[in-house]
Amino acid sequence: MLLSAKPQLFIITGSNGAGKSTFKQVLLPPDFSELDIFDGDIYYTRKSIEFYQKYKSSKEAKKLAEESLEEHFLELIDEHIKEQRHFAYEGHFTGHGAWKVPERFKKAGFKIHLVFCGLNNVIKSVQRVDIRVKKGGFHVPPLAIENNFYGNAQ
Question: What 3 state SS string does the chain have?
Answer without folding.
Answer: CCCCCCCEEEEEEECCCCCHHHHHHHHCCHHHCCCCCEEHHHHHHHHHHHHHHHHCCHHHHHHHHHHHHHHHHHHHHHHHHHHCCCEEEECCCCCHHHHHHHHHHHHCCCEEEEEEECCCCHHHHHHHHHHHHHCCCCCCCHHHHHHHHHHHHC
